[in-house]
């Protein structure tokens, strides 16, 4: 269709005018949407108010009213700890007690009764804040120092008894540094754990390399909290610690031992002579000076479940000081038994050597055992004041661990010299 030039010009102008109008409306609309959006408030919130501090053992409880600002996101509590290191704690704005309307936090880990300055900042989402609310408070004496007052060290053969009482709801470490007064270079240390609300009287052997200290000794005791803060030392002098020595394992044997059978004999209830290799599993592995080998009650066939027992012949009578038991050292050791009952018998009380059931056994108590602990676990026999040639270890059903069998890696026996 033919259109006159003037008419075409008028139509083109109209279309351009319409497009210009639409674009203007669109731009106006976009501008209006942007203007309707709220800009984020990154200004510093108003500070917290009514800041209070309540001293407790080894710490301070802080409380305050939250910032009234809408952009308040969290409170930052800054202070310097017992080791001189700057620390801080962040508390969300939502952590407000519904009853009191207060925000609170407890700061622990102080070792001294010295003033501490706390700065509480009101922060927005970006961490911006104004001046803090400031308060100074003095923590009370920490509980771990109070535990030190209840630690008592007394001499024992080859070491000491360490009595302690932790009356508090927190774990406390009791560290002992022991040394020979005759040679101060002979020094070592060990640490006991006093769990919450616990007490004990633990035996600590004075191991120094391959030597066990004796004679006049000194013990410096400190206590520590979970943060590693340590008390001053309380020193105890011990006079004439009795010397102990280890029984030579080459003199040890097992009554009725048969290396070729897993069946029980007069000296043990069972052993595993088939399923653990050429030598492993047998009862004599208990005193072969090799922690990688182990005794195992019978598991190929019947008769290996608890209860189990074995007898060790020391070769002659000894004034017994302690037995040291080692758990099986491989990845299956944690399945082992969790306790033992110990019996001993002097040579004169074992009249018929072929019938241990007729011997006069003395009960030396039941003792817990941790099969997951690969270190030596000591059973202190010195309180029983026994002289004996034979030791019987009985593993009752009630000591069953995560497996049904009994096993041990090694046994060391010590006597009073």
What does this structure look like?
The chain is mostly beta strands and 417 residues long. The protein is 9% helix and 41% strand. The chain contains 2 helices and 25 strands. The strands form 7 sheets. Strands 17, 19, 20, 21, 22, 23 and 25 form a 7-stranded antiparallel sheet that branches. The chain has a 4-stranded antiparallel sheet with strand order 4-3-6-7, with no helix packed on it. It has a 4-stranded antiparallel sheet with strand order 11-10-15-16.
Helix/strand class: mainly beta
Count of helix runs: 2
- Element pattern in H and E: HEEEEEEEHEEEEEEEEEEEEEEEEEE
**In percent, how much strand structure appears in the residues?**
35-45%
| DSSP, total strands | 25
The end-to-end span amounts to 130 Å
Principal-axes shape call = elongated
Described by strand count, sense and barrel closure, the largest sheet is: 7 strands, antiparallel
**Share of helix among residues?**
under 10%
Radius of gyration, whole Å: 37 Å
Low-confidence stretches: 1-9, 11-32
Average pLDDT for all residues: 92
Q: What keywords describe this structure?
A:
mainly beta, 417 residues, single chain, 4-stranded antiparallel β-sheet, disordered N terminus, 2 helices
SSE layout and pairings?
Blueprint (H helix, E strand, L loop, with lengths): L4 H32 L12 E8 L2 E7 L8 E7 L5 E7 L9 E7 L7 E8 L9 E5 L5 H6 L3 E5 L2 E8 L5 E9 L6 E8 L3 E8 L1 E2 L2 E2 L2 E10 L9 E8 L2 E3 L48 E2 L11 E19 L12 E7 L16 E7 L8 E4 L6 E9 L11 E2 L1 E7 L1
Antiparallel strand pairs: 1-2, 2-5, 3-4, 3-6, 6-7, 8-9, 9-12, 10-11, 10-15, 13-14, 15-16, 17-25, 18-24, 19-22, 19-23, 19-25, 20-21, 20-23
């Amino acid at each position: 269709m033919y259109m006159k030039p003037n008419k075409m010009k008028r139509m083109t102008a109209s279309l351009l005018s319409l497009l210009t109008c639409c674009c203007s409306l669109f731009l106006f609309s976009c501008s209006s949407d942007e203007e309707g959006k709220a800009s984020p408030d990154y200004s510093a919130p108003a500070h917290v108010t009514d800041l209070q501090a309540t001293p407790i053992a080894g710490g301070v409880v802080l409380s305050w009213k939250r910032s009234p600002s809408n952009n308040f996101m969290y409170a930052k509590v800054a202070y310097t700890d017992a080791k001189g290191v700057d620390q801080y704690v962040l508390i969300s704005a939502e952590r407000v007690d519904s009853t009191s309307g207060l925000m609170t936090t407890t700061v622990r880990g102080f070792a001294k009764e010295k003033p501490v300055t706390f700065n509480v900042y009101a922060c927005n989402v970006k961490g911006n804040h104004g001046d803090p609310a400031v308060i100074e408070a003095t923590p009370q004496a920490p509980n771990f120092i109070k535990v030190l007052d209840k630690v008592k060290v007394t001499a024992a053969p080859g070491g000491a008894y360490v009595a302690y009482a932790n009356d508090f709801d927190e774990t406390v470490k009791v560290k002992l540094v022991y040394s020979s007064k005759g040679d101060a270079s002979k020094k070592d240390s060990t640490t006991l754990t006093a769990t919450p609300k616990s007490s004990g009287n633990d035996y600590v052997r004075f191991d120094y390399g391959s030597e066990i200290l004796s004679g006049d000794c000194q013990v410096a005791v400190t206590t520590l909290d979970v943060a590693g803060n340590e008390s001053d030392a309380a020193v105890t002098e011990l006079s004439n610690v009795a010397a102990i020595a280890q029984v030579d394992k080459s003199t040890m044997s097992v009554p009725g031992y048969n290396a070729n059978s897993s069946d029980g004999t007069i000296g043990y209830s069972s052993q595993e002579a088939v399923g653990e290799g050429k030598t492993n599993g047998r009862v004599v592995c208990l005193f072969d000076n090799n922690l990688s080998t182990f005794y195992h009650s019978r598991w190929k066939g019947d008769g290996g479940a608890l209860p189990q027992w074995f007898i060790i012949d020391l070769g002659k009578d000894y004034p017994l000081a302690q037995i040291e038991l080692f758990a099986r050292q491989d990845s299956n050791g944690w399945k082992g038994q969790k306790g033992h009952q110990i019996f001993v018998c002097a040579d004169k009380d074992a009249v018929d050597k072929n019938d241990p059931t007729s011997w006069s056994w003395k009960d030396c108590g039941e003792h817990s055992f941790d099969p997951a602990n690969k270190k030596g676990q000591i059973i202190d026999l010195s309180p029983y004041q026994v002289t004996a040639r034979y030791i019987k270890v009985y593993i009752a059903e009630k000591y069953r661990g995560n497996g049904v069998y009994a096993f041990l890696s090694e046994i060391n026996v010590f006597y009073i010299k």
